Automatic annotation (TrEMBL):
Belongs to the CpsC/CapA family. The keyword Nucleotide-binding does not apply. Residues 436-464 are annotated as: Disordered. InterPro entries: Bact_polysacc_biosynth/exp, LPS_length_determ_N. It is found in: Cell membrane. It is a multi-pass membrane protein. The keyword Magnesium does not apply. Its main location: membrane. This is Polysaccharide biosynthesis protein. The chain crosses the membrane at residues 21-40, 230-249. Keywords: Cell membrane, Membrane, Transmembrane, Transmembrane helix. Pfam families: Wzz.
Amino acid sequence: MSEDTIRLVTIGRIFRRRWRLLAVAAVVGALVGYGTSLVLPPRYTTSASVLLPGQWEERELLTQSEIASSSAVVDRAAAALNWGGVSGSELRDQVSAEATEGNIVQISGTADTPEHAQRLADQVAQQFVSFTARIAGDSTDSETAAGPEALRQKVMQTNRRITALAEAADPGQTVESVQTRTSLEQLRTSLEEAMKKLDEADPANNKANMVVMGPAAPPTGAAPPTRTQLIVGGALLFFLLAVVGHLAAARADRRPRTGPEVAAALGSALLGTVDVPGERAAHRPEGGGARARVRRLLGTDTRWDMPEPRASVDEAGRQLRYRRVCAHLRTQLPFARRLLVVVPDGDDIARRAAGQLVTEAGSASPGPSGRGDPLLRVVEVSVSRPLVPDRDTESGALVVLSAGSRTSEELAGIAEACADARHEVVGTVVACPVQDRPARTGGDPPENAAAAPPERGHATGGPA
């Protein structure tokens, strides 16, 4: 799988074969999220809105929102609230402001209780309005303030002069007198409209007329992340980490999975592939102890990335594979002699295949040359520290193992152990688990399943 694309079937296989481990990971993540919620107290957030009347550009609204959350405003709010041990610098992290549509600055306050959050938002809004009004008053000096007032006085004098001119005009209904009075009235109207626009465009008036649009609403719930969100988020995070960990381990796996790859790692020839029927429970490694029980409970005692066992043809087809392996042995070893069948420790599939191979070798009839199969003796070797019995009556080793169960380094270690014991690795047999079909309810057994000759029965044991 190391070079394969991750497919949905791979994810489904993880869920199906590691669902207990994934469930435990999700529970642990939920507990971590719950513990985090105890360390981080709940927070509550509410908002107060301030209306800015008049015409405002976008950059001016952004400036006002920055002023609302500035230290000058927040420090005044902290002094007005007078919360013991809470300074303005601490409150600045709990206050935010945002300019929204309709010339509204929305001021948000966050605190440990709903009441504190509501009071904080309201107080900051009030201090913001007061601060902007003070800025408008301070920025208007005497000369600047006298300018608009003097202009108003000039306009009033002009209006009086227009009235006097209108009265001094010819009271008759001549065309010239009517046009003169009409022009004077238009001038009066233009002056009044200009003064009205001047008053509306005065920035000091705009700032002074800011309005707090009612008190902040009490928070109805805690601000994110809530305790429920932390628990769910922790469970989901640990669940995803467990899945990603399985995928990463599978991508990094370099175990030989085909017969030629296994034989190449052992430095020998592939004699064949045999099928071993059985249930999934039979493939679990043996062993006791608390650690083994925990691994069995979580389902980590078996490989998850192995493909589903394919359906077996029948008993006759399986026996034919074993006979072909024995025939290859006769071809490579023309003279019958004793061989060690080396099986990695804990490989139940390989151990059962080796036992069946010994049985077939002992029950096989002599070949055309009149010579039978070599006598086989099964030995299990540890993979961590492989040790093969020294050469005695056996003159070679036949390695039987299941595909994808060992790394190339472990297989090389087994080959070196055979060489140290002066055993030549004459071949490799790969055992594959299959799903056994239901047994036949009637009919005669296959002809090729006859009992073995009694004189060869000692081949299944140790040296004769």
